[in-house]
């Protein structure tokens, strides 16, 4: 009898893996056809100066086309990475975001554009030329383009990634370490790579104003990063208490649902115009 139930269990797992496999293959095929139809969209989430509360930057976040079923980037980006389709998708994101930046800089000359870069893209040789071509065509300065590299990119130390980051940095692009605080060897990355900006991960935000040990860690970290001259951005600000806390800790920039959600370019255009008046 137990033998029988054991067998059922195996069948159950097999079925689950098979379903998961089909789901991923389905998403992978869809990514290919969406790319061909130029169907992906970019949303933009504003980044605010902590002192002036003005929008000083924006982060491009890729979105699945408006159709059913829909997937978030946390699900389809890893699939695009495995299948090398990240190169095509990444190129589209870079050129679209930089064109948009050029447009916004006509009225907000100091605005920056943050672009998430996958570690897979860093390992390929044409990333620098893709970025250079895009800024040349759009006539924007490399210093106004921030490349956000997620901390997990450095799990495996690779010379290729390190060389790529140094080359990008030497060309003037700004490098941000994204999701800082999630990994276990974050501090080492700050020494090994040419990083300008540290984005504190959402999980670093205290759930309430009560603080305690968490608050001490955040405060200590902020102090250290400031002393090392990193620009510090807090992401995932959802409550006024978190915002006040980050301002109190003298972090440089703030981003989160409390301030603004990711939105289509036209909506951010409206926000920027309103702030201008
Ligand atoms: P990320 O770069 O860390 O981006 C922040 C994510 O947190 C975004 O999710 C954003 O919508 C969300 N977020 C912003 N404010 C808040 C908040 O206050 N609370 C909460 N709970 N969430 C907040 P999204 O757009 O789903 O993107 C998820 C991840 O997918 C990104 O994390 C990034 O790693 C990746 N991603 C998105 N677009 C691209 C892209 O164009 N290229 C690459 N390689 N990765 C991308
Ligand atoms: Mg990011
Ligand atoms: Mg992040
Ligand atoms: Mg993330």
What would you say this structure looks like, in words?
Residues 24-276 form the EAL domain. This is Response regulator receiver modulated diguanylate cyclase/phosphodiesterase. This protein has 277 residues and is an alpha/beta fold. The chain contains 10 helices and 8 strands. Strands 1-2-3-4-5-6-7-8 form an 8-stranded mixed β-barrel, surrounded by 4 helices. The N and C termini lie far apart (76 Å). The mean pLDDT is 90. The chain binds ligand C2E and magnesium ion (MG) (3 copies). Residues 45, 60-62, 72-74, 77, 93, 116-118, 148, 150, 178-179, 202, 235-238, 256-257, 262 line the site of ligand C2E. The site of one magnesium ion (MG) has 4 residues, from loops.
Short description:
With 277 residues, the protein is of the alpha/beta class. The chain has ten helices and eight strands. Residues 45, 60-62, 72-74, 77, 93, 116-118, 148, 150, 178-179, 202, 235-238, 256-257, 262 line the site of ligand C2E.
